[in-house]
């Protein structure tokens, strides 16, 4: 059973930055594509971005492209989500996911970390 633990969330003013971390079980991030999703109150869960298991390819939702960056550190078994130029609309619980079964819904999910952006 893979384990994913997110951290780094918090309260930040609009225009600020945060870096989320996702600590994974050993070999997880070198085996599976890793993704970040978010869910705001009363809204559907939303794809934020993903990185391939090799780390060579990244994908982003249009809403965060140019502001958010996903990276990995295999030695630390950690995936990062660097979030810059944050907006109040980025307020949500952010989840880290390992795409273990070729679809995100069936993958391994972390418990989430709250990000709140004040205007």
Question: From the helix content, strand content and strand pairing, which structural class follows?
Answer: mainly beta
**What is the number of helices?**
1
Major sheet summary line: 7 strands, mixed
Helix content: under 10%
Termini separation: 40 Å
Number of strands: 11
Radius of gyration: 13 Å
Series of secondary-structure elements, N-terminal to C-terminal: EEEHEEEEEEEE
Quick one: overall form?
A: globular
Overall pLDDT level: 95
Uncertain residue segments:
none
Taken as a percent bin, the fraction of beta residues is over 45%
Keywords:
119 residues; mainly beta; four-stranded antiparallel sheet; globular
Topology overview:
Elements lengths: L3 E4 L2 E4 L4 E7 L3 H4 L1 E7 L6 E6 L6 E3 L7 E6 L4 E6 L8 E8 L8 E2 L3 E6 L1
Parallel strand pairs: 2-11
Antiparallel strand pairs: 1-3, 3-8, 4-5, 4-9, 5-6, 7-8, 9-10, 9-11
């Amino acid at each position: 059973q893979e384990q994913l633990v997110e951290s780094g969330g918090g309260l930040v003013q609009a225009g600020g930055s945060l870096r989320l971390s996702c600590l994974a079980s050993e070999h997880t991030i070198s085996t599976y594509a890793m993704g970040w999703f978010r869910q705001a109150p009363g809204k559907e869960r939303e794809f934020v971005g993903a990185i391939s298991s090799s780390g060579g390819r990244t994908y982003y939702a249009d809403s965060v492209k140019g502001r958010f960056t996903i990276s990995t550190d295999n030695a630390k078994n950690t995936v990062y989500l660097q979030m810059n130029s944050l907006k109040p609309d980025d307020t949500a619980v952010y989840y880290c996911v390992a795409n273990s079964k070729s679809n995100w819904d069936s993958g391994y999910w972390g418990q989430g970390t709250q990000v709140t952006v004040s205007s």
